[in-house]
């Protein structure tokens, strides 16, 4: 058993620690779950099968949740668990929410970051002797007093980015929208506790996130076709390792999609996003549940079809056993990338462009939407193309062609061909392989 006075982690009767011999050496290279068994009157243990603390904590959480006897309270008559928000810690609610829901979502990293901000607030309160701390329960966390204190603290807490060595590399003031994103995630965790079967909490939050229009700044920065051409020339420069950025620019210009959706485009058959000759591409891969940031089905512009076909050709040349994780449009020597933030920042510096918050990769989506709108794209088409409008039941069967947006993008691409010849193709010769048939869409009227 561990010789530490304080375990690494504890929930209910279970605690996590290293299993040590009397001389202090480890019995096992893996972390161990301990608990006291009243029937045998001894401490029992079970291996987590991992030496990584985060994985071991998850193993303990799973064991705790599977133990019906660890409910907060029981009815003396029927023996069924009774939900008591006053006996269920907020930190446990957050851990269970991530384990049972958040970590299984495509946005798991975002969910984790938002909830860790709430945990940081609890730690700060604990250290300062504030009204809240690590023992804050769900009943307290559901109160208006809690969220008021959290918002006041968060407003003064900067956003920090850390490198692989956990050293802060970037720091900026936190926006109200960032704070409200954590509030929304906190609400989701508390409601998850109340919705559990059986419920773990009998309280729901007495507050809501502030409306987006109240906390989000209007982003006014846009770039024109000339700036887009400069970006393409930079990304397509021969002999430079800028392939992932080049592909990201092509995907963005062809779809006006969010950066995450562009990085998620794949030709792998199991994702069912695109097939040779297909006139459409589904930005929502097979198995991904749609959320508020909707990913639509879009027409495939000829330049995108060229890149997708070439990527598929390379994918099919691989032996079947090497195809897992390959086939992404935006990749770095075949490997998928989560984002192009580093390459993007280097490009802005090289091109002597501003590097403020409004100049992050989202700038492409905002700029292309503005260019398309100013070139005749109708509101209805643009909303559907960008995923801002949920399709009707009719559109579920009859896929929209968004002719005014396609016409606008076709004009933008033609201008980019003139300003930056060859940069829209996979080689710097400007030559394009034969393309699958793509229906020509005319402007109405």
Measured by DSSP, the beta-strand proportion falls in: 5-15%
Quickly give the CATH architecture of the largest domain. Answer: Orthogonal Bundle
Mean model confidence by pLDDT: 87
Strand elements, count: 12
CATH topology of the largest domain: hpI Integrase, Chain A
Low-confidence stretches: 428-445
Q: In percent, how helical is the residue content?
A: 40-55%
The CATH H-level superfamily of the largest domain is Intergrase catalytic core
Organism: Sphingomonas endophytica
GO molecular function, one term: DNA binding
Protein name: Tyr recombinase domain-containing protein
Keywords: DNA recombination
Describe the structure in your own words.
By secondary structure, the protein is α+β, with helices and mostly antiparallel strands. The chain has 3 domains: 9-53, no CATH class; 81-215, no CATH class; 225-419, hpI Integrase, Chain A. The protein contains 16 helices and 12 strands. The strands form 5 sheets. A 4-stranded antiparallel sheet has the order 1-2-3-4, covered by helices on one side. A two-stranded antiparallel ribbon has the order 5-6. A hairpin with a 2-residue loop joins β1 and β2. α3 (108-128) crosses α6 (176-195), α5 (144-156) runs antiparallel to α6 and α8 packs across α16.
List the helices and strands and how they pair.
Layout: E1 9-11, E2 14-17, E3 32-37, E4 42-47, H1 53-66, E5 73-74, E6 81-82, H2 90-100, H3 108-128, H4 138-141, H5 144-156, E7 159-162, E8 168-172, H6 176-195, H7 212-215, H8 225-235, H9 243-255, H10 259-263, E9 280-282, E10 297-299, H11 302-317, E11 331-332, E12 335-336, H12 341-350, H13 362-374, H14 379-386, H15 393-397, H16 403-419
Antiparallel strand pairs: 1-2, 2-3, 3-4, 5-6, 7-8, 9-10, 11-12
Helix pairs in contact: 2-6, 3-6, 5-6, 8-9, 8-16, 13-16
């Amino acid at each position: 058993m561990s010789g530490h006075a304080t375990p690494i982690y504890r929930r209910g009767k279970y605690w996590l620690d290293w299993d040590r011999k009397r001389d202090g050496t480890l019995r096992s290279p893996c972390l161990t779950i301990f608990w006291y068994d009243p029937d045998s009157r001894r401490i029992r243990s079970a291996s987590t099968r991992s030496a990584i603390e985060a994985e071991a904590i998850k193993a303990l959480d799973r064991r705790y949740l599977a133990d019906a006897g660890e409910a907060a309270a029981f009815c003396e008559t029927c023996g069924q668990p009774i939900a008591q928000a006053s006996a269920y810690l907020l930190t446990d609610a957050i851990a269970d929410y991530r384990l049972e829901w958040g970590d299984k979502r495509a946005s798991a990293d975002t969910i984790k970051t938002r909830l860790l901000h709430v945990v940081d607030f609890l730690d700060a309160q604990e250290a300062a002797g504030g009204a809240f701390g690590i023992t804050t329960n769900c009943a307290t966390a559901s109160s208006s007093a809690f969220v008021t204190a959290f918002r006041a603290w968060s407003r003064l807490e900067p956003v920090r980015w850390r490198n692989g060595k956990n050293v802060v590399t970037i720091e900026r003031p936190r926006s109200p929208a960032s704070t409200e994103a954590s509030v929304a995630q906190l609400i989701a965790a508390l409601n998850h506790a109340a919705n559990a079967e059986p419920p773990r909490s009998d309280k729901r939050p007495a507050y809501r996130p502030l409306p987006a229009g109240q906390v989000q700044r209007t982003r006014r920065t846009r770039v024109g076709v000339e700036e887009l051409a400069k970006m393409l020339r930079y990304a397509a420069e021969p002999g430079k390792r800028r392939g992932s950025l080049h592909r990201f620019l092509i995907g963005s210009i062809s779809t006006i999609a969010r950066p995450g959706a562009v990085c998620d485009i794949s030709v792998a058959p199991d994702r069912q996003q695109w097939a040779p000759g297909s006139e459409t591409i589904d930005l929502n891969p097979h198995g991904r549940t749609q959320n508020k940031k909707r990913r639509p089905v879009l027409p495939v512009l000829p330049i995108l079809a060229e890149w997708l076909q070439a990527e598929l050709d390379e994918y099919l040349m691989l032996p079947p056993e090497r195809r897992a994780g390959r086939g992404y449009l935006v990749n770095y020597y075949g490997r998928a990338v989560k984002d192009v933030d580093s390459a993007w920042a280097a490009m802005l510096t090289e091109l002597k462009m501003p590097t403020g918050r409004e100049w992050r990769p989202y700038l492409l989506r905002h700029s292309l939407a503005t260019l398309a709108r100013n070139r005749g794209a109708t509101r209805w088409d643009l909303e559907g193309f960008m995923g801002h409008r949920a399709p009707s039941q009719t559109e579920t069967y009859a896929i929209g062609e968004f002719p005014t947006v396609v016409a606008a993008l076709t004009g933008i691409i033609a201008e980019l061909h003139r300003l930056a010849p060859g940069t829209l193709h996979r080689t710097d010769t400007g030559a394009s392989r034969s393309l699958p048939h793509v229906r020509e869409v005319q402007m109405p009227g």
